[in-house]
Amino acid sequence: MTKAAALAGHKNSLRGQVAIVGIGLSPVGKVPGRSPLWLAAAAAKQALADAGMQKNEIDGVLASPAMAAQFHRFSVAFSEYFGVRPTFSNTLQVSGATAATMFSIAAAAIHGGLAETVLVVGGDSLLSGLTPELALRSLTESRDQQYEMPFGIPVANTFAMTAHRHMKEFGTTPEQLAQVAVTQRQHAARTPGAQQTEPITIEDVLNSKMVTSPYRKLDCSLISDGGAAFVLTSAERAKALGIEKPIYILGGGECYTHEHIFLMPSLTTTGAVQSSQWAYDMAGYGPKDMHTAGVYDCFTGTVIMMLEDLGFCPKGEGGRFVADGQMTYGGQIPSNTHGGLLSFAHSGIPGSLFHFHEVVAQLRGECGARQVAGAELGLVHSLGAGFATNATTILGTENTL
Amino acid sequence: MISLEDAARKPLPSPDADTAALWRGLRDGQLLLQHCGDCGNVQFYQQGFCRHCSGENLTHRPASGRGKVHSFSVVHRAPGPAFKNDVPYAVLLVELAEGPRMISTYTGGRSDEVTFDMEVELVCEPVSDDIALPRFKRA
What we know:
The structure holds two protein chains of two kinds. By secondary structure, chain A is an alpha/beta fold.
């Protein structure tokens, strides 16, 4: 029995113990004149209204840090700005994987009695709060100062080297990479407020400017402003509050395989294999059971690799899976139905919170023209730092408990 | 958040309490790898413990300087103003003959010459009085 399977049977498993009872989104894309704190607070206000709760009912705050804000303790600064006085709070930082870890940690805190109702919140303004040059350089600053940064290695480059190797080992093509961008743009066209909705073709992607090979401009996620927030509380309290459609956290898993890209055990198989396995084991469901997914999509090739590592298709088949329409409506796993980081918005760490917002909205059946019919089980995978950090969350409706 | 002024300068490595010997070696034209006397593990970069067995019986030995390109990516859009004049340049993930991998950049040729599994050889390029960067040319 794996450690995860053993824990899943344990009385302390988080499965179904905690529910998401409110979701909120700030305006996203280009939102000039608004600070990261404003974006976070706008989302939080909406999440509380969605839950039908007052802010004094929040006793926990978990936040992600913001690049365009100077606060060392963003969660604490947020609480002051928003006018709450939590008795449980932290600012979490494992790069792009932070979002999914926020849900696991909030659930563990609630289940463990550290807090009753936790606000999970993030906001940043990479587009309006930083110049393009500073935004790019800030992303480079996240690489190691001795062994990576001196060589001019943007974080994009670490992801590019993994995709490049994937192309060599499995024959993944630039056209297959491009298909991810095309599909997600189609999804964004049905999402009110998405940053990029203009249709694109595979040729448009292949003709866009090379950024760092094999990635061209349209293979890369956007740079955006925006925030998202969620209210989490215990399943019992969700029931007592009369929440109409609580969405339960069924499983969570993380995996950290390296810090430096040169110590990544394999460039083409990532820690997402372990993080998702842990989450599936806790949830008692497998990849074939999922109805929709939010798959971290900082680059097109990242999605292809993750569809494999999350178990939606065999290793090496991701390119063909995508080209075959399996990540959109009518396919095996409609993914990033809001458009993802590639077309909806990417405001740094909060970007992956948008995937959570979308999957929760899908499971609540609120997605209108882009609704995945009958969606009851969803997965969100967050990752960052050249696949150094991976975290998976599995969500489900009351029927899936 | 970094200032615009800082963003215009190339970042130079600052050796830390663990890594003085590595950077001294590179300044003197040698890439030092750590060999664990307890378990035989060979590691890059220099640190206080063997990553495999946590032993501290580590000795430095110069690497052969030979390796091959495990993966690469040619940068066309510079990550900030400091690298603008260098594009296009090929960032390499080199697998050293001794086993460890490291990040570097291609030197002594055009970025479009780089291929998977290409044999490469170490070049220590001084960038300040104290620091030489380990770069690689075609072997």
